[in-house]
Design brief:
alpha+beta, 8 helices, 8 strands, 57% helix, Mechanosensitive ion channel family protein, membrane, mechanosensitive monoatomic ion channel activity
Length: 300
């Protein structure tokens, strides 16, 4: 019994001596690993500040700029951790960490697939120069002013002041029309005049009114005028012209102004904009019996 305890004690001493020897031998590596970790921490802070300044120049959304800066800092810290483990000759632990990180990343990715897709879509949208805050856009059946783009959603304010929230993924996967990319918009105006009207005079007068109403239209040659069809009660036409505008509201105001001025000019020139008219034609004349009519009136 005494020999067994002595043997166990000697084994314990040998183990402790081995650990102490290993620690002493690895003190330089340990110090170097600590230096690497501390250095990576400060480098991560500097990287975060630098990336934040650079991203803010390209991305107007603060939330997205901050998350990109944080991700860059985390990448630097993780790289420092792996380097420190390699210096400590902990290759097995490093392999285990990598395997665990891969499994955890796969599980998190599957669980948050929708959220992550919206997040990455928000980052992509933020870097697109063709989509900026304040732009008037039309997408997914909605149109309005872009008031916010964050990591989850794309926010529009419609002309009637309603707020529309659209997931970023839908913005990235569907067509988007941006009215603010150019400083000019084309106004389409449809109307009809009576069949008795002088069509050449109608065309001349309409072009003249548009040219005199809008400074952007330099002459009547800049106004497009086309008769489109013989309608039920009028001859219909399409008038098109360009204006300086960047939003649908400005376009609607210009169209309203054009309609008012055209109506005034037509009234002054005696040009009729007819209501829908239906003409009834009877092939056989109605016959009236005078005697029957006299009896009916006398009875009344």
């Amino acid at each position: 019994m005494k020999d067994t305890m002595l043997t166990a004690f000697n084994n314990l001493i040998d183990k402790l001596q081995g650990w102490v020897s290993a620690i002493i031998e690895n003190i330089p590596n340990l110090i170097l690993a600590v230096v690497v970790m501390v250095t990576s921490y400060f480098v991560a802070r500097y990287t975060r500040t630098l990336i934040l300044k650079l991203v803010e120049k390209r991305v107007p959304q603060q939330s997205i700029a901050k998350i990109i800066a944080k991700i860059s800092a985390v990448v630097v810290v993780v790289a420092g951790l792996f380097l420190a483990l390699g210096i400590m000759n902990l290759s097995k632990m490093l392999t285990s960490l990598l395997a665990g990180a891969g499994v955890a990343g796969l599980a998190i990715g599957l669980a948050l697939q929708g959220t992550l897709s919206n997040t990455f879509a928000g980052v992509v949208i933020s870097f697109r120069k063709r989509i900026q805050l304040g732009n008037w856009v039309e997408t997914n059946g909605y149109s309005g002013e872009v008031i916010d783009v964050n990591l989850k959603e794309f926010v529009l304010k419609e002309a009637d002041n309603n707020i529309v929230v659209i997931p970023n993924k839908m913005i990235l996967e569907n067509p988007l029309k941006n009215y603010s990319l150019t400083t000019r918009m084309r106004v389409f105006l449809e109307c009809g005049v009576g069949y008795e009207s002088d069509l050449e005079e109608v065309e001349r007068l309409t072009k003249e009114v548009i040219a005199n109403t809008f400074n952007q239209v330099e002459s009547t040659d800049d106004v497009e005028f086309y008769y489109t069809e013989f309608g039920d009660s009028s001859i219909n036409y399409l008038c098109r012209f360009w204006i300086d505008a960047e939003s649908m509201l400005e376009k609607l105001k210009a169209k309203t102004k054009a309609i008012i001025e055209i109506k005034k000019a037509y009234d002054k020139a005696g040009i009729n904009i007819p209501f829908p008219i239906r003409t009834l034609e009877f092939n056989n004349k109605l016959s009236f019996d005078d005697a029957v009519m006299e009896n009916q009136f006398s009875n009344n």
